[in-house]
TrEMBL record:
Pfam family, one: DUF608
Molecular function (Gene Ontology), one example: beta-glucosidase activity
Name of the featured protein: Glycosyl-hydrolase family 116 catalytic region domain-containing protein
GO BP: any one term: carbohydrate metabolic process
Chain segments annotated as transmembrane: none
UniProt-listed InterPro entries: 6-hairpin_glycosidase_sf, 6hp_glycosidase-like_sf, GH116_catalytic, Non-lysos_glucosylceramidase
SUPFAM superfamilies: Six-hairpin glycosidases
């Protein structure tokens, strides 16, 4: 995989001329594809999610449609918040399937389903799928057409799904070099990024969480700026800027770059405490907790060949804190990384999820450590979740 800066530099001064639109046979520039009247119309009203035409796979790379379950107890297809952790395997082994899953989600971003749904946690009502929001899943009973089977929270207000979409799309685009894929999904990437602007409440360039569990840790409440969603957002801004340059959408690239340069210092000012990034900028009892997943955005940034989000010293310091506390203070490192730890060395028991160990998160933390040059700590961390899952208390 080439370095993202090199890729951007190679194309930055190139004139994007014509690309063949495989869907309708016309030739248009890449930028035209994202700003034409059709796109603008969809930005206002969205496609109807039950319109079969928007899900057609009429392209030369059609490998069919693919669904998978997160687990036997979560019967929702392609839960996207955890596809973020699992998708590396698909990209390595079955890249065309991975790209088609991303195409399905790209189409989903650009549609709206106005059917009413009651959300269980808050008891409020909303619509099933909001235009511009990445769905939590592709559905259960009627996948692709009745999305968001998950109804605990209104996931159109979640802060991690849209950045995760942008990061996965850019990673796949960079890894495969598939220009047509990039062209196909670019309107959805733009829409997903623009959708998030509503969550910057104070104009500092950062998205803010809204005081409920509005991300994949859906019992773990977040207030204000959070290390998890904020870091994902910084990474998404950088990835969207790089992808925009490669596809010739220079105005949008500059917009994302300006936001990134504004948001990054605000993020560090609000969350960096000298050794790691606080859980969030609120004043709750767990706001200073050590979250294992605090550098999820940096994981994707480094994996995609983009410049690091933070200084190397801060990245290593935060990872060292996670290793010393979340990994080594739980059964001597033989469990993986617990999601949350208090600075006093005790597990954060704010909720069920803060005290759990998640496989995907642990392997993601280990991967981030490897990318930061901390190989010994990385393999100790990964070994812990392997032992817990397969050799000691698991399926081995």
């Amino acid at each position: 995989m080439r370095n993202g800066q090199d890729r951007a530099r190679e194309l930055e001064n190139a004139v994007v001329k014509e690309t063949e639109d495989k869907i309708n046979g016309r030739k248009r520039t890449v930028v035209e594809r994202t700003t034409d009247s059709t796109y603008e119309s969809n930005a206002t009203t969205g496609h109807n999610c039950v319109d079969e035409n928007i899900y057609g796979h009429d392209n030369d790379d059609d490998v069919g449609r693919f669904l998978y379950l997160e687990g036997v107890e979560y019967i929702m297809w392609c839960t996207y918040d955890v596809h973020f952790y699992a998708s590396f395997a698909l990209l390595e082994l079955f890249p065309r399937i991975e790209l088609n899953i991303q195409r399905d989600f790209a189409r989903a971003v650009l549609c709206e389903d106005g059917r009413k749904v009651r959300f269980l946690a808050e008891g409020n009502w909303g619509i099933r799928k909001v235009y511009g929001a990445v769905p939590h899943d592709l559905g259960t009973h009627d996948p692709w057409y009745e999305m968001n089977a998950y109804n605990i929270h209104d996931t159109s207000k979640w802060k991690d799904l849209n950045p995760k979409f942008v990061l996965q799309v850019y990673r796949d685009f960079a890894a495969t070099g598939d220009l047509q894929f990039g062209i196909d999904v670019w309107p959805a990437v733009r829409a997903a990024m623009e959708y998030m602007d509503q969550f910057d409440r104070d104009g500092d360039g950062l998205i803010e969480n809204d005081g409920f569990p509005d991300q994949t840790y859906d019992t773990w409440t977040v207030h204000g700026v959070s290390t998890y969603c904020g870091c994902l957002w910084l990474a998404a801004l950088q990835a969207a800027a790089a992808m925009a340059l490669e596809l010739g959408d220079r105005d949008f690239a500059e917009t994302c770059k300006r936001k990134f340069l504004k948001a990054k210092p605000a993020f560090e000012e609000k969350l960096w405490n000298g050794s790691y990034f606080n859980y969030d900028s609120g004043s709750s009892g767990n706001s200073k907790s050590i979250q294992a997943d605090q550098l999820a955005g940096q994981w994707y940034t480094a994996s995609s060949g983009l410049p690091s989000l933070f200084e190397d010293s801060k990245i290593k310091s935060a990872l060292r804190k996670v290793y010393d506390f979340n990994v080594m203070k739980v059964k001597g490192g033989r469990m993986g990384a617990v999601n949350g730890m208090h600075p006093n060395g005790k597990v954060d028991e704010t909720c069920m999820q803060s005290r759990e160990v998640w496989t995907g998160v642990t392997y993601g933390v280990a991967a981030t450590m490897i990318l930061a040059g901390m190989e010994e700590e990385a393999f100790t961390t990964a070994e812990g979740i392997f032992l817990a899952g397969w050799s000691e208390d698991g399926y081995g």
